[in-house]
Design a protein that fits this description.
By secondary structure, this protein is of the alpha/beta class. The chain has 15 helices and 7 strands. A 5-stranded parallel sheet has the order 1-2-3-7-6, sandwiched between helices. Strands 4-5 form a two-stranded antiparallel ribbon. It is globular, with a radius of gyration of 23 Å. The N terminus is likely disordered. Bound molecules: thiamine diphosphate and magnesium ion. Magnesium ion (MG) binds next to β4.
Length: 421
């Protein structure tokens, strides 16, 4: 579809129920007169409930192509971006989601059994990640946080390559340039600056301008939007028209902090303040996420970046295996989101609208079991890296001083091993 037929998502004036209805004229308020704004900073219980309801429902601006009941719905703005997706492609997207969920659950179990030091679950965010990941082209570059196992899968990274990070033996064993997927970033929001720099480079090197142009996708969370790094990335990307899709997975929580503590406007609306389009998509709808990300990437490739996508989703498990979400959120909330499960809605669609038979699901189950078994045996057999490993792959030519330290370090380990047997 030509660019000009795709309207930039219309700006909306929708504000959550608990936000002030009118922006007061600019003024300096001190003493007692400051009380109303102080009250706004701590909404009462009713306001909190209204706000949470507004966020859990996604609002009228949510782009959706597949309802939670598995029904295909139209959207004239994005329909054509998935016109090529027939039943075989839908099955492919379903397979991706099932397999990454299986990897996620197996890794979670491995952590519980002491084989991994920590695990960061993606449960519930499969559609957001597979939709975005499958929208990307070979020449594109992704900058993930630490939860993007589904995007890694789409970039062709074998899940076993993620395991060293969580076993504490390496920082990821893939070459970011070859696969177009940067190493995981733990420092919240920091990868947005890296992504901005990369995207500015694409533009300055003349690799933007037509549909084969290069684009960058930056993945981050709702909590990250409160970081200064993200603000700076938005400013730099905007003023340099950088081809970067800021893909925010709003999973409603930043560890134990709810979205309500990050923002008073829906996150996608923030883009307006920086001067680029922002759009909210149902992040549990793989088809809508694929369509919206394809649109955003096209904008970037053709020189109309950046774009902010807010993928409205939910973290169905703990923040990490070190976290206990029952301490800060109600079980009801999880139950509500289970009804919007990204995998189940596509399964229902495949069965009811495309008459996909049980055989397909059985085969996928067997494939998924095989993948989990391979992951498990790989992790159980993972060797402990040698003492020289911390010195390798940092310098092309190791400086003399570090070479000396490495030799001492290696010799110490050898003598220690001799003593301890
Ligand atoms: C700069 C920085 N501050 C604090 C932390 C600790 N921390 C780790 S994850 C996290 C919450 C991030 O939430 P969000 O951006 O919503 O991503 P999610 O984990 O939900 O995917 C925090 C505060 C950190 N890693 N880096
Ligand atoms: Mg979050």
């Amino acid at each position: 579809m030509p660019d000009e037929t795709i309207p930039v998502p219309a700006p909306t004036t929708q504000i959550p129920a608990h936000a002030p209805q009118q922006v007061p004229a600019q003024q300096t308020v001190t003493g007692e007169a400051a009380a109303p704004s102080a009250r706004l900073a701590s909404p009462d219980a009713q306001q909190v409930i209204a706000g949470l309801r507004a966020t859990s429902e996604g609002g009228a601006d949510l782009v959706q192509l597949l309802t939670p009941e598995g029904q295909r719905v139209g959207d004239p703005r994005f329909e054509n971006y998935v016109a090529d997706i027939g039943v075989a492609e839908l099955q492919g997207l379903y397979r991706d989601m099932v397999l990454v969920r299986r990897v996620d659950r197996e890794a979670n179990a491995l952590q519980r059994q002491g084989e991994l030091g920590i695990w960061v679950p993606l449960l519930g965010q499969e559609a957001a990640q597979i939709g975005a990941g499958r929208a990307m082209a070979k020449q594109d570059m992704a900058f993930p946080s630490y939860r993007e196992h589904g995007v890694a899968w789409c970039r062709g990274i074998d899940p076993i390559e993620l395991m060293g990070i969580f076993r504490g033996t390496d920082h990821g064993s893939w070459d970011p340039r070859t696969v177009g997927f940067h190493l995981y970033t733990i420092v919240i929001g920091n990868q947005c600056l890296n992504a901005t720099g990369w995207a500015m480079g694409s533009r300055l090197n003349g690799r933007v301008g037509d549909r084969n142009g290069e684009a960058t996708v930056c993945f981050f969370g709702d909590g990250a939007t409160s970081q200064g790094d993200v603000h700076e990335a938005f400013v730099w990307s905007a003023v340099y028209d950088s081809p970067v899709v800021f893909f925010c997975q709003n999973n409603q929580w930043a560890i134990s902090e709810p979205l309500e503590r990050q923002t008073r406007v829906p996150l996608y609306q923030r883009a307006r303040g920086y001067g680029f389009p922002g759009i909210r998509v149902d992040g549990n709808d793989v088809l809508a996420t694929l369509a919206v990300t394809r649109w955003a990437l096209e904008q970037c490739r053709t020189g109309n970046g950046p774009v902010l996508i807010e993928a409205f989703t939910y973290r169905m498990d703990a923040h990490t295996s070190s976290d206990d979400p029952t301490r800060y959120r109600l079980a009801d909330e999880l139950e509500t989101w289970k009804l919007k499960d990204p995998i189940e809605r596509l399964r229902v669609n495949l069965v009811r609208s495309h008459e996909v038979g049980q055989e397909y699901f059985d085969e996928l189950q067997a494939e998924s079991d095989g993948l989990a078994a391979r992951l498990r045996s790989f992790v159980q057999a993972m060797p402990t890296p040698g003492p020289e490993r911390i010195f390798s792959e940092v310098y092309a030519d190791l400086p003399e001083e570090l070479r000396r330290q490495r030799d001492t370090h290696v010799a110490f380990h050898a003598s220690f091993a001799e003593v301890t047997g």
